[in-house]
Amino acid sequence: MTTTAPLTGVRVLDFTHVLAGPFCTRLLADLGADVVRVESTKHPDYPWPSGYVAPDGRHASYLNTNRNKRSIAIDLKQEAGKDIALRLAQSADVIAENFSAGVLERLGLGYEKLRKSNPGIIYLSMSGYGHSGPRSDWTSMNMNLQGYSGLMTVTGAEGDPPTAISNSWNDYVGGLHACFAVQQALTQRNITNQGARLDLSQFECSASMIGPLLLASALNGTVPPRLGNRSLEVAPQGVYRCAGKDQWCAISVQNDEQWQALLRVIGDAAWGSDARFASVQGRREHHDEIDQHIEAWTKKRPHKAAEALLKSGGVCAERVRRIDDLMSDSVSTTVFHKMDEPRVGTMLTTALPFNYSTGPLPEPRSAPSLGEQTEEVLRDWLKLPDQEIHSLQEKGALV
């Protein structure tokens, strides 16, 4: 059984590039929207080398982030190209862009102009610091945003230099917030018949993710501690070395009952009556001593064996897995799907990590090559005859 994807029929004209914007529009495409990427051979968007490059230059990041989309190649510096982009925008439900402030306005594709001919348009602008305020002209990258938002000073442990979260955290968090905003605007449009301008700041997305720390600091007048793998709420908690090369087990003892369970598993029931460890506070104060004791036990066992013994005993514990471990276990998870990639072959990709009770979403389609569906999109969205398409190609407007 196949369900109708929730955004079926929604048209998204995608001017985004690199990662934050394309991740947002990929989520929309996964949910059934017809997402058309506007690209150009003069400025191809094959970002972030990530360990694999397809024969046509697309990186693994591009293959994963731009699946389920179509691509049209337009030269926006030509008047004929601008006109085609404008006509596409007039028939779209959503415009998505993550250029610096003012770029699309200078191309004649700004919100104020488009809303006159398409009052229902939902216009998403994604930038590092938003399109208004004193930082609107700042250039941003993931690393800078993590630093400026304060995120890098609440990761890692005390004494470490500021530590970034890898894998372009800000881009993914920004894209996720943007997808949520677009869906809310589409829902509101169904009620009001009016579109909306969505101005998203990736800096503010990052700051919002550490909201509890900001609130606590404001109320207490203190800087939040850098906890590394530990916690203020539970103890012991950490990652413990196991037998074998670079094998580890993550353990998080959530309450007094699990503390007693841990002691039974590792054979130290006598510690259960030690007043020093009777409370979370006491265990936090003696964390170093407890860690040494736990690791003396884990180091004698492979991580799978340690995990099995701890879990069967009622302790929250999982072995630390590498990427290849995840891939080998992909058949048992929702998030992995096999995707037919004509230029690469069948490949594993990540999908939306949830299911609909009415049936699965359509299987993912491969990411397009640059301009692969140019003629198809012009026929579908604008009903252009072949003669006009060929004329645009001769003028160099479609490149």
Give a written overview of the molecule.
The protein has helices at 20-30, 60-65, 79-90, 103-106, 111-117, 142-148, 169-192, 202-208, 211-220, 256-266, 280-285, 287-298, 303-312, 323-328, 374-382, 386-395, and strands spanning 11-14, 34-39, 69-73, 94-97, 122-127, 196-201, 237-241, 248-252, 316-319, 336-341, 345-350. It is α/β, with parallel strands linked by helices and 399 residues long. It folds into two domains: 11-209 and 331-395, Crotonobetainyl-coa:carnitine coa-transferase, domain 1 (Rossmann fold, 3-Layer(aba) Sandwich); 237-241 and 248-319, 2-Layer Sandwich (formyl-coa transferase, domain 3), CATH 3.30.1540.10. It has a six-stranded parallel beta sheet with strand order 3-2-1-4-5-6, sandwiched between helices. The radius of gyration is 26 Å and the shape is elongated.
Q: How many β-strand stretches?
A: 11
Uncertain residue ranges = none
Radius of gyration: 26 Å
CATH topology of the largest domain: Rossmann fold
CATH class term of the largest domain: Alpha Beta
Task: Please tell me the total number of domains.
Answer: 2
Concise summary:
The protein has 16 helices and 11 strands. The chain is of the alpha/beta class.
Key structural traits:
6-stranded parallel β-sheet; alpha/beta; 2 domains; 16 helices; 11 strands; single chain; 399 residues; 3-stranded antiparallel β-sheet; Rossmann fold; formyl-coa transferase, domain 3
